[in-house]
Design a protein that fits this description.
alpha/beta; single chain
Length: about 290
């Protein structure tokens, strides 16, 4: 026997579960007459009535009840398979908002390792700092230092404590050089002086707009930059920069922020685990060198 058109079965299934042609029409965004017409075509194809029509109400006949047992499972299974196909066809994408210098000096060089491990995930990197509006930016994750309040609606995971160090081309007399100040964190040297006990009285200060400019100036021998361990660890490892005083916790910390729990976004959870692993490797090197 030739099967009836799939569309008639879809209309039947919706009407049978709703118990109303009117509600079925609303659910499928069609007219009431369209529902009635499709049901009538199906009944003509099968040679039996599927609904008893009583005034404005409809009730399944025994044949209709039997058919519903099949269509209910059939359309649920079909919907699940379609969703699976769509999910598999769409590559996993994680969008991350990250402070520019950390993105440039630490994260990007390590993304090669992430892609080698997880080639199916793409990371979209947005260089930004400070307060984050997830509704406007539509990013999945934001790596931020806790120098602002993000409210109780944002999910936050601490990834590490901030550690700051004075770095220059040569060790020893680095405090005799001009001290390079990032305009994005103007009080960093003051905090570092309090934490380290080093007297900076009489030092000359030169201000740059961003940390990465301060680091580049230090690499050019123009002064001593104060930077997060994440910003200069590669230069420390390669010997390009020296930090004779080491790196000191300044009381702040970095957090991974998200608009919803990480377990609801598989790719974001995978990236978060990798990020924390890489940060811990960097911490171990800085603290044990």
């Amino acid at each position: 026997m030739k099967l009836p058109p799939l569309s008639t079965l879809r209309f039947f299934d919706t009407a049978a579960k709703a118990g109303s042609f009117v509600k079925a029409a609303q659910a499928l965004s069609v007219t009431h007459s369209a529902i009635s017409r499709q049901i009538r075509l199906l009944e003509e194809h099968l040679g039996v009535e599927l609904f008893e029509r009583r005034n404005r109400a409809v009730f399944l006949t025994p044949e209709g009840q039997l058919l519903l047992q099949t269509t209910r499972g059939m359309f649920e299974q079909l919907s699940a398979v379609v969703e699976q196909i769509k999910t598999n066809a769409t590559p996993d994408v994680v969008s991350l908002s990250c402070e520019p210098t950390i993105a440039m000096k630490w994260l990007i060089p390590r993304l090669t390792d992430f892609y080698q491990r997880h080639p199916h995930i793409t990371v979209h990197l947005i260089a930004a700092g400070g307060a984050i509006d997830f509704a406007k930016t539509h990013v999945d994750l934001a790596l931020r230092r806790n120098d602002f309040s993000w409210g109780g609606q944002i999910h936050a995971m601490k990834v590490c404590s901030e550690q700051m160090g004075a770095v220059s081309l040569r060790s020893g007399s680095s405090m005799m050089l001009p001290l390079l100040v990032s305009a994005s964190r103007r009080n960093a040297w003051k905090t570092w002086q309090q934490k380290s006990g080093v007297d900076l009285t009489g030092c000359k200060y030169v201000t740059y707009e961003h940390f990465y400019l301060c680091i580049q100036a230090a690499l050019a021998g123009q002064g001593t930059a104060l930077a997060s361990f994440l910003m200069v660890i590669d230069e420390i490892q390669s010997g390009q920069l020296q930090s004779s005083g080491g790196f000191i916790p300044d009381g702040s910390a970095y957090y991974l922020l998200s608009p919803k729990p990480l377990e609801t976004h598989r790719a974001a959870a995978i990236f978060a685990d990798w990020l924390i692993e890489q940060i811990n490797i960097s911490i171990d090197y800085i603290n044990n060198r």
